[in-house]
Amino acid sequence: MSDILLLLPFLALIVINVLPRSARGGAWVVCLVLFAVQTVGACLQPFVTLDWSMLQPLEKALGFTLVVDPLSIMLFITAGIAGMAALLVGRATHDTTRAQFTFANLLLIALIGMNGIAMVRDLFSLYVFIEVTSVSAVILVALRDGKEAYEGAWKYLLLSAVATVLMLTSIALFLLGTGGITYADLATALASGTPMAWIAVTLFLAGLFVKSAMIPFHGWLADAYSEASPAVSVFLAGIVTKATGIFALMRLAPAMMEAAGPVREILLVAGAVTAIGGAFLSLTQSDMKRMLAYSSISQMGYIVMALGGDAKLALAAAALHFFNHTVSKAQLFANAAALETRLGTRDMDRMGGLGARMPVTAGTSAVATLSIAGLPPLAGFWSKLLIVIALWTAGQHTFAIIAILTSLVTLAYFLSLQRRVFFGTLRAEWDTVREAGASLLVPTIALAFITVAVGLAFPVLLPILLGGGI
Amino acid sequence: MTIMTIVLVLMVLAALWASMTTLLLRATIGLALTSAMLAVVMFSLGATLAAILELSVCAGLISVVFVSVISLTQTKTFKDILQHRKGRLARFWPLPVVMLGAGIALSFVHSPVQIALPLPGGDGDVRTVLWNLRQLDLFGQILILLAGVFGVMVFFKRESKDDN
Predict the structure, then answer these.
(1) How confident is the model over A116-155, as pLDDT tens digits?
(2) Which of A205, A300, A315, B108 is deepest in the core (most CB within 10 A)?
(3) Chain B, nearest residue to A104 by Cα
(4) A435 vs A14, A22, A459, CA distance in Å?
């Protein structure tokens, strides 16, 4: 069954490219259906068993070594949701059929990359699929014409290249030291405790930190997110950075922490510095997308910090916050797209009082900001609570307190965003502004609904999350 | 001093030249030379196919692409070049110092590690490894190439009226 998750998007990629030129406007529909099928299929997977035996000859012929587990399913769902939101925003914001067509193609390639990241079981394949996703993402950033977008793409490419060198060197050292590069070999190598194994782990961690934009490797992210087209920002902030960096960390961290060594401490300190640094950088921004970008850095720090918590809870807490942040941040970037489309600016100092003119955008953005800030009963509250509990029960009281205090800073910059954009007196220049169109409102409403629903249904979801083996 | 040491030193010098020169064309030649030296190292280590690929793709094909792109750019004036050279030297002077320091430090390290990479399985034939053991990575490689095609379209193709 796992091969299907790579082959189906690849088939869709072929299909949309053999469409006659006049029908290319429909590429996004094919793409949307595929993302929807993946999301629904992944959501139903724990409850429905399908017979995939007919595909065995194909799987044998391809010889791919892939494994699906609950963590993979979480990535399939989040990638599907972020992809659908990005496609709908792209429908509203990409001016030309060609831009929409290229966007759909690159989204499909990135989806295959992320599905690969979710299912591979060796470091080199992980690196290959991280690159597939990253290369697509770099080109997506450049999809918007202009010097700033090219600069954002260039910075992303340059830092990605640094991460590539670090990861490849690490893989080479693992090969030298152990003769294998599967996740099992990684655990064995770490258990042996040789210096080479630890140098290799350090390099791989550094590579993933660059991909995750952990401070001090965060320089590329704000430019890439803010200068990309609105739809690309939704996709990048929603899932790409998390899949290429954070998910890989989540996959490898348990094996790394089982071995004696300072990995737990590295994750805790790096996570805390990133969470605090990102939050304070957000406070100082007046460009809405840049504020959201730095907020993403902060939240990624949160997820990494969670990994250093109690072994039973850490991964579940990180996975839930991964999901919640994807949903809320994709929504906030969709809100930013709505504002940018209507106002032609992202400068929050020029906004104010827009809640009256754009009530749906204001309402949904309030849901997302309050959820990320960790207000009950929204989804973000539960994931942050789990993170704090995971840290506290692991005896990491200082980091648990840091997590709580950072949440207060998060609340502060998001309240500042709400006040500057939606509250106060409406400026005369925005008198004629209207609410955004359906393509922008549908994803924001749907994502806000998910945030509220996950929050309210959390008591039901928690046993599934903990019992699912994440 | 063995041939391998001379080749490694030449490779580092070529890489330094590629990084520090102010002219794009010279940087391209430096990069090609670095790749050529690396190909010699690979060949000496018995990685024949990797050496051929390094030589043909990195030293050959990529250099051709670079030169083609450079031919589309505008040449700087002599005054600009001098100005640029000053800034570049000021920015990159630690690079040779760091390389020299690292070289001296590494010369004292006598690693017990086997340099030849262990085979990842199969009979050791590169074809077997690629087609029978790493099919998934080949699939990934195809995807990266496809993404590259779209990259070329994004960077180099201008919008036409019928695209709207």
Answers:
(1) 999 998 899 999 999 999 999 999 999 887 888 888 899 9
(2) A300
(3) B150
(4) 37, 31, 35
Contact B154 A95 (CB under 8 A): no
Phi, psi of A182 (to 5 degrees): -75, 165
Interface test with chain B among A3, A10, A31, A132, by most B beta carbons within 10 Å:
A132
Domain chopping of chain B, boundaries: 1-72+91-97, 122-158
**Predicted local distance difference test score (pLDDT) of residue A301:** 94
Q: CB–CB of A179 and B151 under 8 A? A: no
- Determine whether the interchain pair B147/A13 forms a contact, defined as Cβ–Cβ distance below 8 Å: no
What burial class does residue A83 get, using C-beta atoms within 10 Å of its C-beta: 0-12 exposed, 13-18 middle, 19+ buried? buried
Neighbours of A215 (CB within 10 A): 21
- Rounded percentage of chain B residues whose pLDDT exceeds 70: 85
Chain A contacts of B161, Cβ < 8 Å? none
Q: Is B159 on the interface with A (CB under 8 A)?
A: yes
CB A96 within 8 A of CB B163: yes
- Select from A274, A254, A273, A278 the least CA-distant residue to A264: A254
Fill in the DSSP letter of residue A54: G
Q: A57-71 burial string, b = 16+ CB within 10 Å, else e? A: eebeebebbbebebb
Q: Where are the alpha helices (DSSP H) in A179-287?
A: 183-192, 195-211, 219-227, 230-235, 241, 248-258, 263-283
Distance from CA of B138 to the nearest CA of A (A): 9
First to last CA, chain A: 20
On the question of pLDDT at A61 being above 80, the answer is no
- Under an 8 A CB cutoff, do A102 and B153 touch? yes
Residue B164 has pLDDT above 50, yes or no: no
Q: Tell me whether residues A64 and B147 touch, CB distance under 8 A.
A: no
